[in-house]
Amino acid sequence: MFNGTDKRYNQFSEYLKQKFGAKVYKLTLDAGFSCPNRDGTISSGGCIFCDDGGSFARTHSNKLSIEEQVKAAIEYVSGRFNAKKYMSYFQAYSNTYKPVDELKKIYDAALTHPDIVGISIGTRPDCVDAEKLDLIASYTDKYYTWVEYGLQSIHNKTLKKINRGHDYECFLKAYEETKKRGINVCAHIILGMWETHDEMMETAKELARLKVDGVKLHLLCALEGTKFTQMYENGEIQFMDMDEYVNLVCDFLEYLPKETTIHRLAGNGYRDALVAPVWLGAKFDCLNKIDKEFLLRNSYQGYKLEI
Question: Do 135 and 128 form a contact (C-beta atoms < 8 A)?
Fold first, then answer.
């Protein structure tokens, strides 16, 4: 149903394949960024779910230069998968949290290889300004350019509870400034944060209203060394099982426009650090169940917008 596949949602990897005529592999890069919610600028302790890796899969060490990381990553994926096209992806922490002149050097270094077709920059909505967004926009003529904002929820009560350090209004301002510069935006959402089903669907409906370009869904999980794990061990929260999560994901996607690309639905890069839920490591089982649930429902991404 989407991108010439039998998927019932707009899978980003397949969308890229259609757009560029070949599978595009993300090169996960670490430029040694920090985060204002961890270094004491905004608050102490950071978000309660974030571990020492800052949402980074620990593929590389930031002791390597960006050029070296790009080279090593391309050598690996080209050798293993015969890859031909790549997107540089800055994932760890807040990748706009440096002066703009330093950011330019970092981003430029990630785009030196001729087979790199895009760049994606993960950050917080309170870590951008006009000058930084203008810099990112300068890449859009030559590269498929994304900013990935950690939104997590539209509900300020939830953002406060997870010690996010910004409100939804901050995201809206950053979103509007980013979009008016022609930059694609992916919103990261965490499901399962003490919210009702209706509250989580309100987040989906709001993303649909904004016509956000991409969405990355996560299930709140307990990682070693986080405040959230302490709360889990104290019995302050319980996790959904896989079937509950699958149903929730399908409900969420039914409210999103067909044009919105889906960057992630299941799994994470922290198997060694994962405390709970243990099923979260079974990424492909979860994705297969999502496909089957859509078939059982005879629905698809955007279904609720059409009835």
Answer: no
Q: Are 256 and 207 in contact (CB under 8 A)?
A: yes
Residue type, 204: A
pLDDT per position in the chain (307 positions), as tens? Answer: 899 999 999 999 999 999 999 999 999 999 999 887 777 787 666 776 766 654 444 444 557 999 999 999 999 999 999 999 999 999 988 999 999 999 999 999 999 999 999 999 999 999 999 999 999 999 999 999 999 999 999 999 999 988 788 899 999 999 999 999 999 999 999 998 889 999 999 999 999 999 999 999 998 887 887 788 888 888 888 889 999 999 999 999 999 999 999 999 987 656 678 887 888 888 999 999 999 999 999 999 999 999 8
List the domains of the chain with CATH numbers: 12-302 (3.20.20.70)
Residue 92, C-beta contacts closer than 8 angstroms, at least 6 positions apart? 30, 31, 33, 53, 54, 55, 56, 62, 122
Which long-range CB contacts under 8 A does 14-20 form with residues at least 24 apart? 15/261, 16/87, 19/144, 20/85, 20/117
* Residue 23, SS3 per DSSP: coil
Reading phi first (left if > 0) and then psi (alpha if -120 to 50, else beta), residue 277 is in beta
